[in-house]
């Protein structure tokens, strides 16, 4: 009888040890995923060379972002070239806020400052640059993922939007 009790305790102790190991492994996995993947709630500072082609226009320039957990600044600096060879300058700063709805952050542009060097007609710029950079607008479902220590991927609805390097 005492050997049977000892055997049952040993089996129970082994099961509890296995369960404890599984819980610890799952906890480590959850912590790893929460730390390394989504950086939308943290600081961000990056810039990306970008080329956008649309209709009869080509934008070449740099998009840069500096963001803390609740607000940020985006800058657009570049040139738009038309098919007939005209070139226009784009220089603007966009102040935005970030609001979190669960795991779905929303960036809302609040104030746009246009440089006195910008000479592109508004109707031309509307054809090539997203609305977020032109007027009070929102971008939903932003994901910011750290690819490595120097590279950040900004995605919208899990579609890559901007691949940028840390400043």
From TrEMBL:
Top-level taxon in the UniProt lineage: Bacteria
Key words, A-Z: Membrane, Transmembrane, Transmembrane helix
Residue spans crossing the bilayer: 12-32
Protein name stated in the entry: FidL
Organism (species): Buttiauxella warmboldiae
């Amino acid at each position: 009888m005492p050997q049977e009790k000892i055997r049952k305790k040993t089996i129970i102790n082994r099961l509890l040890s296995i369960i404890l190991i599984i819980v610890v492994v799952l906890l480590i996995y959850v912590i790893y995923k929460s730390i390394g993947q989504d950086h939308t709630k943290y600081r961000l500072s990056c810039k990306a060379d970008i080329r956008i082609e649309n209709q009869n226009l080509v934008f070449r320039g740099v998009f840069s972002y500096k963001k803390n957990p609740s607000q940020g600044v985006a800058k657009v600096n570049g040139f738009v070239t038309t098919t007939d060879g005209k070139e226009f300058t784009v220089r603007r700063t966009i102040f935005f806020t970030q609001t979190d709805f669960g795991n779905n952050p929303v960036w809302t542009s609040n104030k746009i400052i246009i440089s006195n060097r910008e000479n592109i007609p508004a109707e031309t710029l509307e054809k090539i640059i997203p609305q977020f950079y032109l007027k009070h607008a929102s971008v939903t479902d932003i994901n910011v993922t750290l690819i490595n220590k120097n590279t950040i991927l900004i995605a919208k609805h899990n579609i890559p939007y901007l691949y940028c390097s840390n400043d």
